[in-house]
TrEMBL record:
Annotated Zn(2+) binding sites: C410, C413, C434
Protein name stated in the entry: DNA ligase
Cofactors, names only: Mg(2+); Mn(2+)
Species this protein is from: Candidatus Accumulibacter affinis
Membership in a protein family: Belongs to the NAD-dependent DNA ligase family. LigA subfamily.
Length: 676
C-alpha cells in the first residue's frame, strides 16, 4: 500500500467509526482504539503534509479564530413552521391539505412524514461534489451566518458524503442540538471552571455554534439531525419526503429514528400521542412533532402561505407548568412606550429553566386573572416562549395579598400614561423624551438584525443615555474615544472596538436600516418587503397609505404605523443626520410600478385554474398591485374561480362579489391602467 492509499484507508476507517458512534449510536471500537487510529493518521499527515485534505477527520478542528461571521444569503429561504397546539388545529391542517390537493372527502387519506421537532438550532449545510463547502445558521431565514468552521467540528456531520447517487450540489437542512446528558456534563464543566452555566440545551447549542473560535466549539459535544433539503442539482431525488430522509441517512447524515410515515388525521394524532409518551426518554429535547405531506410534488402544489409552508405544521407539546409566589409586579417601558407589567416571582424551575420573571401583558389581563401581589400562582413556559402567569390559586390567597394598580404617570420619565379606548396597552406619552424608550430604541437600532453594532449592550446604553451622551441613534456616530473611555467599566481597547463597530455599521442595507428605525409593527420581514418593494428610502418615506398597502403582507395597521412615523419631523431629522454621518446602503429599483392595474384590489383564488398554479396566480396579482386573501368577504373585489371551486365560490355568489376566470384575470392584469 502506498502512503497515500494508507492515509485514505485510515480516513475512511475513522469516518466509519464516527458514523457508527455519532449517527448510528452503535460504536464498534473502544475510545482507546479510536484514538489510536486517529493518532496514526495525524502522524502520517504530519510526516507527509501534502496528503492532508480538507475532508480529513484530522481537519475538523484547527481553523484559526474568525474576526467575525460573514453573512450568507440562503438560496431558498429557511422557513419557519406554523404551530398547532390543539387536535382541532391539526384537523384543520389536514382539511386544508385535502382541499389544497383536491382529495375527495373521506376517500383518500393524505400520507404524511411525521418526525420529532428538535429543540435546537436550524442550520444549512451545502455540499459540492459530495464535499461539505459551507454551513450556515438560519439567521432571519433569508440571511444566516457562515459557521462552516464550527459545523465542521461536529462529528455527526459528514465532511464527505457516503454512498452514491447524491446530487452534485446539495443543501441539507437540519438542527444542531445537545443531548441532555451532554448538556449536564457541559454545565458541570462550566461550574468547575467557574464559568457561567447555560440555561438549557438549546441556548448552550446556540452559544457553542456562534463561537468565533472553532476550537471552543470543538469542545462542546454538539450533534446534528437532518430533516430535509433546501435544494439539489445534478441528480434525481426520491418522490417522497420519507424516502428523501432515508436517502440522507444513506449519505451519512443522522436522521431521527423516530420518524414515521402515517396516514390521515388518525395517523397524525396517534403519532403525537406515542412520541409524547416517549418524550422524556429521548436523549434530546423536543418540543413537539412535525407533520409534512409526504409526496414532494404535492408539497410543491400546496406551496407556502406568507412565510410558512402549507404542506407542514408543527404540533407542539403542551407547555410545562409550576406553582410559585408572585412577589411583586413592576412596570417595564418598551421601545414604543408600551407599559408591560412584569411579575417578579419566587424563582421556580419550569420547562428546563429557572424562571424569576414572567410577562403579565397588560392591566386587563391582571384583572381578568384576578392576580394579587402575594398570591400563589401557576407559571407556564412553552418552549422558547416567554413564561407567563396562568392564574392564581385563589383558595390559597394570603390575607396580606394586595391589588395592583397601573401607575398614572411613567415610572421612568413621569410623563402621562395614555390608553386608547380600543387598545389594551397603556403607553408612556414621553416618546423619545422618555429615557426608557430612548434606551430601547438605541438597543433596537444597534441589534444584530438592525445595524449590528457589536458591543453596544444594555449597560452601555444605560450609561450613554443617563449621562446624556447619546439621545438619538445619530449621536452614536458622533461618539469619540474620550467620551467612551470615561464611562464606567470601559477600557480604551473596548472603546476602540466599539467605535470600530459603529464605523463598520455605516455600510448597511436598506432593509436593515428600515428595520433599525424601529417603526411600530415593522419587523425584519416587513422591513425586507418594504425595501424590496420601494427600492429606495425616499420612495418609502414618500409613500401614502394606498401605496404602502400594495406591499405584500402590509395591512392597514402597518401602513398607518409607517405613515405616522414618517409624519413626525423628528424622525425625518434623525434619518437625515444618519445619512449625513455617512450611513449608506445600496438603493435599487422599485419592484413594482406604483399603481398597477389591480392596485388596491383584493382577490381570492379558488379551485384549480386551467394553466396557472396558485403561487403563480398570486405572484401575477401582486405584481399588478393586487392583494390575495384566503377568505371571501364583502371587501373582496374579485373571486378568481377555477374548476372544482368550493365554498368560496358559494360565498362570493351569496355576497354578490364579482367572479372571474383565469382568462379574465390575465386580461385585467394586461390591460394598461386608465390615464390619470
Ligand atoms: N423535524 C423537523 N423540524 N423542522 C423544522 N422538520 C422540520 N421542517 C422544517 C422546520 C422549520 O421546515 C420545513 C418543513 C420547511
Amino acid at each position: 500500500m502506498t502512503v497515500s492509499e494508507h492515509a485514505r484507508a485510515l480516513r475512511a476507517e475513522i469516518e466509519k467509526h464516527n458514523y457508527q458512534y455519532y449517527v448510528l449510536d452503535a460504536p464498534l471500537l473502544s475510545d482507546a482504539e479510536y484514538d489510536r487510529l486517529f493518532r496514526e493518521l495525524q502522524a502520517l499527515e504530519a510526516e507527509h503534509p501534502q496528503l492532508v485534505s480538507s475532508d480529513s477527520p484530522t481537519q475538523r478542528v484547527g481553523a484559526a479564530p474568525l474576526p467575525e461571521f460573514v453573512a450568507v444569503a440562503h438560496a431558498t429561504p429557511m422557513l419557519s413552521l406554523n404551530n398547532a397546539f390543539a387536535d382541532a388545529e391539526v384537523a384543520a391542517f389536514d382539511r386544508r391539505v385535502h382541499e389544497g390537493l383536491a382529495l375527495d372527502e373521506g376517500v383518500d387519506e393524505a400520507d404524511y412524514s411525521a418526525e420529532p421537532k428538535f429543540d435546537g438550532l436550524a442550520v444549512s449545510l451545502t455540499y459540492e461534489n459530495g464535499i461539505l463547502v459551507r454551513g450556515a445558521t438560519r439567521g432571519d431565514g433569508s440571511t444566516g451566518e457562515d459557521v462552516t468552521v464550527n459545523l465542521r467540528t461536529l462529528r455527526s456531520i459528514p465532511l464527505r458524503l457516503q454512498g452514491s447517487g447524491w446530487p452534485t450540489l446539495l443543501e441539507v437542512r437540519g438542527e444542531v442540538l445537545l443531548w441532555r446528558s451532554d448538556f449536564e456534563k457541559l454545565n458541570s464543566r462550566q461550574r468547575e471552571q467557574g464559568e457561567k452555566e447555560f440555561v438549557n440545551p438549546r441556548n448552550a447549542a446556540a452559544g457553542s455554534l456562534r463561537q468565533l473560535d472553532p476550537r471552543v466549539t470543538a469542545t462542546r459535544p454538539l450533534r446534528f439531525f437532518a430533516y430535509g433539503i433546501g435544494g439539489a442539482a445534478g441528480a434525481g431525488l426520491p418522490a417522497t419526503h420519507s424516502a428523501l430522509l432515508d436517502r440522507l441517512g444513506e449519505w451519512g447524515f443522522p436522521v431521527a429514528a423516530e420518524r414515521r410515515r402515517v396516514s390521515g388525521l388518525g395517523g397524525l394524532l396517534g403519532y403525537y400521542a406515542e412520541i409524547g409518551q416517549r418524550r422524556a426518554s429521548l436523549p434530546y429535547a423536543i418540543d413537539g412533532v412535525v407533520y409534512k405531506v409526504d409526496d414532494l410534488a404535492a408539497q410543491e402544489r400546496l406551496g407556502f402561505v406568507s412565510r410558512a409552508p402549507r404542506f407542514a405544521i408543527a404540533h407542539k407539546f403542551p407547555a410545562e407548568e409550576a406553582v410559585t409566589e408572585l412577589l411583586d409586579i413592576s412596570i417595564q417601558v418598551g421601545r414604543t412606550g408600551a407599559l408591560t407589567p412584569v411579575a417578579r416571582l419566587l424563582p421556580v424551575f419550569v420547562g428546563g429553566v429557572t424562571v424569576t420573571n414572567a410577562t403579565l401583558h397588560n392591566e386587563d389581563e391582571i384583572r381578568r386573572k384576578d392576580l394579587r401581589i402575594g398570591d400563589r400562582v401557576i407559571v407556564r413556559r412553552a418552549g422558547d416562549v416567554i413564561p407567563e402567569v396562568v392564574r392564581a390559586l385563589s383558595g390559597q390567597r394570603p390575607a396580606t395579598a394586595r391589588e395592583f394598580h397601573m401607575p398614572t404617570s411613567c415610572p421612568v420619565c413621569a410623563s402621562h400614561i395614555v390608553r386608547n379606548a380600543d387598545e389594551a396597552v397603556a403607553r408612556c406619552s414621553g416618546g423619545l423624551y422618555c429615557p426608557a424608550q430612548r434606551k430601547q430604541a438605541l438597543l433596537h437600532f444597534a441589534s444584530r438584525r438592525a445595524m449590528d453594532i457589536e458591543g453596544l449592550g444594555d449597560k452601555l446604553v444605560e450609561q450613554l443615555v443617563d449621562g446624556a451622551v447619546v439621545r438619538t441613534p445619530a449621536d452614536l456616530y458622533r461618539l469619540g474615544l474620550s467620551a467612551l473611555a470615561s464611562l464606567e467599566r470601559m477600557a480604551e481597547k473596548s472603546a476602540g472596538n466599539l467605535l470600530a463597530a459603529i464605523e463598520q455599521s455605516k455600510q448597511t442595507t436598506l432593509e436593515r436600516f428600515i428595520y433599525a428605525l424601529g417603526i411600530r409593527n415593522v419587523g425584519v420581514a416587513t422591513a425586507r418587503d418594504l425595501a424590496r418593494h420601494f427600492g429606495s428610502l425616499d420612495r418609502l418615506l414618500a409613500a401614502d397609505a394606498g401605496q404602502l398597502l400594495q406591499v405584500p403582507d402590509v395591512g392597514p395597521i402597518v401602513a398607518q404605523s409607517i405613515c405616522q412615523f414618517c409624519s413626525e419631523p423628528h424622525n425625518l431629522e434623525v434619518i437625515e443626520q444618519l445619512r449625513a454621518a455617512g450611513v449608506v446602503w445600496r438603493e435599487g429599483e422599485a419592484l413594482l410600478p406604483a399603481g398597477g392595474t389591480l392596485a388596491g384590489k383584493l382577490l381570492v383564488l379558488t379551485g384549480s385554474l386551467p394553466t396557472l398554479t396558485r403561487d403563480v396566480a398570486k405572484a401575477i396579482i401582486e405584481a399588478a398591485g393586487g392583494k390575495v386573501s384566503s377568505a371571501v368577504s364583502k371587501k373582496t373585489d374579485f373571486v378568481v374561480a377555477g374548476s372544482e371551486a368550493g365554498s368560496k365560490l358559494d360565498k362570493a355568489q351569496l355576497l354578490g362579489v364579482t367572479v372571474i376566470d383565469e382568462e379574465r384575470l390575465l386580461a385585467l392584469v394586461n390591460t394598461p391602467p386608465p390615464a390619470p
